[in-house]
Amino acid sequence: MKISNSFGKFLFLVMSTILISSLTVNIVNAQGEIIYIRADGTVDPSTASIVRTGDLYTFTADIFDHIIVETNDITIDGNNYTLQGSGEGYGFEIDGVDNVTVQNTNIHNFTTAIYISSSSSNTVFRNSFKDNGGFMGSVVMVTPVGDCMYNTFLENKFTNNYGSCLLLFGYQGNVSGNLITNNDANGVNLQASQNSVSGNTIANNTGAGVVLYGYDNVIFENTIANNTYAVNISAEPGNTFFLNNFVNNTNLLYEFGQQLIATWTNGTHGNYWDDYDGIDGNGDGIGDTPFVIDENNQDTLPLVEKVDVVSIPEISSWTLILAVVVALGAFLTLYNRKSVNKSVTKTSI
Which residue among 50, 56, 202, 228 has the highest number of C-beta atoms inside a 10 angstrom radius? Predict the structure, then answer.
């Protein structure tokens, strides 16, 4: 029996809401100490390692608590300190407020590192997520409860997490420039529609690089490599992929329960597939024959060269040390030259 699209959407939304509500109860009950940023802008307790300067809240040390945000239009800067959990609960809880930015924070060891509900126009920028998630958990969650629109996830790093790294029920969001690697998890899980996913590196994850339950999402200029599945489509048509690099994924496509179709070009360019064996007779960078993904999906404009995707570089500690040594050497050389020049000048006089 075939279920209609409208009824299917309704059923899925009901089931998702029940699931999220259940998870919320379990997670909140497991939470310990709490720091509040109150509606009037005060930090409670006042002894928390957070300094307020107008609408900017800056960490002054590592914090081992759960932070609940109750006010709009603020920026929380972790100042490269760590918000550390005990393996349960939320890290940041943003519920019923808008225009909150969380940036420059190492967020470790929570069931859900950032929880966003009934909240729009928030930004999650240049944070590091590690050792988060859990059974049926996710690292960053935007719930289907209330209006969740225009949320942005920019230049974050996700490593060694469990569950979906980004589980988004929100609409018209932007996921850009993130590094999502080496997680026992899915990468970007879009449960809603009209989101943009671009410029990300999603690699070496045990789940799917991109999961689609929503529709009318656009996924472009990403590198999706070495995942168990490149893409998991679990919703109706309307999602578009173009200018992505698909490299060495164990499986290209998983379709949940039925034959589903995505669009694999923007009309002028398709995607790069590492196992495409067609030729480019006229040298325009596009293969002369389609790349067949499965019986329902094909890229009619496959690229013969990889797309240059710019995302956050992974800089090892040794690379950083080498850079410091080189910079110090250059400084000492310049300093010595100036000293010699002064000495020569004095001798001449």
Answer: 202
